[in-house]
Amino acid sequence: MNLNPALAPTDQPTDQPAPQPAPQPAPPASAFAETVTMVRHYTDRLFMFRMTRPPSFRFRSGEFVMIGLPGEKPVWRAYSIASPAWDEEIEFFSIKVPDGPLTALLQKIQPGDTVWMKKKPTGTLVIDALLPGRRLYMFSTGTGVAPFASLIREPETYEKFEQVILTHTCRDVAELKYGEEIVAAAKADELVGEEATAKLIHLPAATREPYVRSQRITTMIETGALFAELGVAPLSPHTDRAMICGSIEMTRDIKALCEAAGMVEGANSAPGHFVVERAFVG
Ligand code: A2P
After folding, report:
1. Of 20, 84, 223, 268, which one has the fewest beta carbons inside 10 Å?
2. How confident is the model at residue 21 (pLDDT cuts 50, 70, 90)?
3. How many Å lie between the centroid of ligand 1 and the Cα of residue 122?
């Protein structure tokens, strides 16, 4: 056995030049190239990462942006920005799809790696797309909590609403961890902590494991269990506003429940009682 590191095979003199990292392709003119600063894995299906923020990049809390990895033909996917508009960095919360065209690679990123981000953010989960109201519901499943991670750290959310209710429904308890962390961060935040502590109610639920709440949010709305727990009247266009982000089925079903309550969908150009966005999937 060779215990002398000086004689380890990899240290032996060689005529070969040291391998150089492959040169990074330049991003297209429509994109920024940013550096990953932090990665945290929650489960085998979920992770978050943070990266540097280009000084010229402006967005509204709740918007999404296209991201991709450096390459000749990058795969671009829409990601909700999970950090608030005032944050120095950009945060994303992502699913890992084993054979997903982007996430199969994205889930392997490390601090120091480069991620491309398109320069134009967009989206309808913004406070401006809602009419004034008293109570704001944020209905999310899975990674659909990401835009709300941004909005619960946004001062305007608390300026405009007396009560903010974040529901986050996942299959398993471990998938609720990121939501718990961002709620705790909002309540401890220098800027919004006091308001968040007074106004923000977090209602996590796990549907496939024993937990304090284990029903789908649609069931909780239909049976009234949600409103009984909150001690408030059922959804009403007079008092309530809603933002919805989750799977195709979940957004479709909650939209139908909002409409059944007499609420009208809003957009940037025509604010309404609720707005919808599908969470990134793939
Ligand atoms: P369930 O476990 O009963 O399917 P997914 O990972 O499939 O997107 O699901 C995330 C969470 O959203 C799960 O708790 C799931 O509940 C719930 N869910 C899935 N479809 C709907 C729907 N149409 N309405 C409300 N919740 C849903």
Report:
1. 20
2. low
3. 26
